[in-house]
Write a structure and sequence with these properties.
The chain has 352 residues and is an alpha/beta fold. It has helices at 2-20, 43-58, 72-84, 98-107, 141-154, 169-189, 207-218, 231-242, 268-280, 313-324; strands at residues 29-32, 62-65, 89-93, 112-116, 134-139, 159-164, 193-199, 223-227, 245-248, 260-266, 290-292, 299-301, 347-351. Strand 3, helix 4 and strand 4 (112-116) form a beta-alpha-beta unit. It is 40% helix and 18% strand.
């Protein structure tokens, strides 16, 4: 009898585990990961928590699908599976699924897609049309960058670095915001700020990026704002070798390295929850970008996990309030060439 009960329990556990991510389960809402798991402490997990919280609260069936490879073809295969399983709304985290959403939106005109932190486009980037069944979610990187620069200088850093990946819009906005925030704090404190500034042209972990970050630290840079995707790991490696500090971008990086002082965060969970709520209230505004700013709690700093010496919660709330009320509006267009056009007062940019 004991052996029978143990066997029965084991079978039940297997069944339960299989149902958790079974491709045959009927679903209403699906999430397609970028190839990682929904416990990656990054884009997949943030978006999945928003989906899960909404669906659990509103009795909607949901599932997640992990593509076999990190390619557009593989993403589309997972989208096909999700829709075959009944999904009417498909959540796709990060820019990596932009082309897959572009293609799938026309293939499945009756299915709605939520593309988080990306814009749909064709393979050649010649068409960026947002279909009527797609809501792309974007975030105010210039505000996030402003918060990062402001907090760093108010905390006592005077020599900073900005290390971006490819010089595309979101990365450029991070950089523009960062130097403006640092300058604003420098003016308040009456001190000069120096920022070493470069783009690596890469979003992948790379020795050249690590070497560049090491040069920054060798030239007295105290903390680097790493806005370079997986290249941020290379910056952290350099920081660990050189006893430097790193400011993370997009999500909380504190678990990745002890060198992380704080991170800027895009509120992925809230954004997905909000758009799903819109969909089920017949307010899915397809064909239009949904942009999140500080005013919608779309961009934040990781104050709970931060390693600040001087920057306080009171100071953070004060500067965040000024962004929310639009008393401060960081310049966020990307058509001006370089940060030299930003009319900085107390900040000197050293281009690398």
């Amino acid at each position: 009898m004991k052996r029978f009960l143990i066997s029965a329990l084991f079978i039940c556990l297997l069944i339960f585990a299989g149902c958790k991510n079974s491709p045959s389960a009927k679903v209403e809402v699906a999430l397609i990961t970028d190839g990682g798991t929904v416990e990656d402490a990054a884009y997949n997990e943030g978006c999945y928590l928003g989906l899960k919280n909404y669906c659990d609260s509103n009795n909607k069936k949901y599932n997640f699908y992990i593509p076999e490879y990190g390619t557009t073809e593989s993403y589309m295969i997972s989208i096909d599976k999700a829709i075959t399983d009944g999904a009417k709304v498909v959540v796709c985290p990060s820019y990596m699924l932009e082309e897959a959403v572009y293609n799938s939106a026309s293939k499945y005109p009756k299915v709605n897609f939520i593309l988080v932190d990306g814009m749909p486009h064709d393979a050649e980037y010649t068409d960026v049309t947002i279909a009527e069944n797609v809501v792309p979610i974007t975030f105010s990187e210039e505000e996030a960058g402003f918060l990062a620069g402001y907090a760093a200088v108010r905390d006592g850093y005077k020599r900073l670095g900005f290390l971006g990946g490819m010089a595309e819009d979101s990365v450029i906005k991070y950089g523009y915001g960062f130097v403006q925030g640092a300058d604003y704090a420098g003016i308040e404190l009456g001190q000069k700020v120096y920022i070493a500034y470069t783009y690596t042209g890469k979003f992948s972990e790379d020795q050249e990026v690590q070497d560049m970050a090491a040069i920054f630290y060798d030239y007295s840079v105290e903390a680097i704002f790493a806005c370079a995707g997986a290249s941020g790991n290379s910056v952290m490696n350099a920081a660990e070798e050189k006893s430097g500090a790193v400011i993370g971008a997009d999500y909380d990086h504190s678990y990745e390295s002890p060198t992380i002082v704080f991170s800027t965060v895009k509120n992925l969970e809230k954004s997905v929850y909000d758009v799903l709520d819109d969909y089920y209230k017949d307010n899915f505004n397809g064909g239009v970008e949904r942009h999140y700013t500080a005013a919608e709690d779309g961009v934040l700093l990781t104050m709970d996990d931060a390693k600040f010496n001087n920057f306080s919660e009171i100071e953070y709330n004060a500067i965040l309030s000024e962004l929310k009320s639009k008393e401060i509006v960081p310049y966020g267009n990307t058509d001006i060439g370089t940060t030299a056009e930003l009319n900085l007062v107390n900040t000197e940019i050293i281009y690398q």
